[in-house]
# Entry
Amino acid sequence: MGDHRIARRGVPLLSAMLALALVVGCSTSQSPPPSPSPAATPSSAPPATPAPTPTRVPRPTAAPPINAIAPASDQVVVHVETWSDIAGPDLGFFVYADGSIVDARGSGLPTVRPLTDAGLARLVGYLRDSGLFTKTRSIPVPSVPHGFGMARVTFTDAGRTVSVTASNVGRDAESEALTAIAMAFLDFESWFVPADWRDGAPRTHPYLPRSSRLTVETAELPDDAWINPARELERIDWPLAVGIDSIGDPIAIPKATERTLRCVLIDGREDVQIRAALQTMPQGGLGDITLGSGWVMWQGDSLLVGLALRAFLPHETPACAADEMPPAPSLAQAPRPSLVDVLVMGLDGWTPSGSPVMVVTINPLGDEGAREVDYYADGTILVHDPAPPMLGFAVRRLSQAGQAAIADLIDSTGLLEASWSEQVPEDAEYDRMLSIILPRPNLETQGRPVSQTIILNATDRGVDRKAEAVVRLAEQLFDPAAWLPDSAFVGGRSAVSPFRPAGIEISITHREDGPFEELGQLVPARAIAWPLSGSFETFGAVDPQYAPSVVATATLTPEEAIAVLRAFAAAGAGRDGAGWSSSAAYDLAGDRPEIWFEVRLSIKGIGWL
# Structure
């Protein structure tokens, strides 16, 4: 891949969902199945061949998202906020004078549910008749150590604004009444009738801002820094007339004079254009951005670029305030490679044949995750999440001489003749657990006992002679380039290539029990512009082993998987923390509240341990 720079490991993208003790809310939403796509065949190109120049994404149109709503009013009639003893307040819900209910909870873009005039009148009448909004106050809260939630409802009526705060642990009539109002904003079906909604139901729409804030910041990289070629700026077609290198005005950040941050206010049309241009770039790396999104990308091999969009609500005053700027981009916080990153980088990579015939893992104590190396019968060595300067997966290929050297090493130890695990006392001190596994694929279907899989486990505590031998063997197998000569590798020890999976497995589970409460608001399945044959709901062949559950499965080529992943990204679907270099997971709302879909994609042949 371009002069063989493959990115280092980053820190996993973490995004916390605020918990509500008051309420828990969820969103509400034949042709024969296509045959699985044939698996990709190994590339015949040498692994050290540089990848071609990144393909640019065509310039998007300026059309806003389908059914997007820009509230016509900037007058807030009702504002509902909730928080708990374990989560602070967020922006909550805003009801504007045109009937638009804007859900601004959490990070990312808000959504809109539009009321009719009659629906807005019903809401206003309900609050007037409640008798709660006579003056601004906090209703006394009983003293409880934990498990409480709070709600604040601010109501503007005839030019007079009143804010009342209460707790869900209050047992007086006023506390219960205010809590009921807050709960109604997460369960509109219990309050409004179909005629109160412009859509005839509380359907969600994308929010179209009148104004947004764009910030751009660069950070210089050291000469030996890694880059992620799948996230290079050269892959996008910047849609604005002013280039990304010069857009905006410098912003001075107190006590951070070394930062190079620029900011500019843009309109909703330009916001849409930028998001469309960046839809193939996974978001993250700049933390949670209120009402917005962040991206970390690379510009050449010398600059890391952080770009953030923050949409403003109708009643807010757009500004480039120094105290609201996102953090600076850094390699330490750059998102880990996602499945789509790995697939994009691997399009010109190497595909191993078959499944792994030996797996070596090192599990260190502490926060650092396990590392893994897979050996294949064709001489391929696949390194999961390798050490710098590699990214995601790295492929080395053993020559015949190298394969013979590995076989001789294993035979000389005599260790891999039977399973063995070191007996480690509970109070023993050690830094790493190392394992060597010789899997036997499809054991049950071949009628062989599972015990034929040979597993060696040992620690580096250094008190058992056989454990020390296992550790030495595992270390040699984990890094054969450290001791084998150049002739043992196709192209030499330094030759690495990206990994092109033989196939990507996709499973779509059709659920009829309603999504889990913690999933929150889901993107409707109908919002996915399905890029493959058939439709999302009918794709794949139903797997009978999961009956009576309906689980449709198929095997995709990397190109097909990239198209599917980008379709999900364009619709804003996904689950925070569910994107890894070998898999991705999504949850989608069906047409009815109890219908939803679980979608999983994973690289075929790995991740089975």
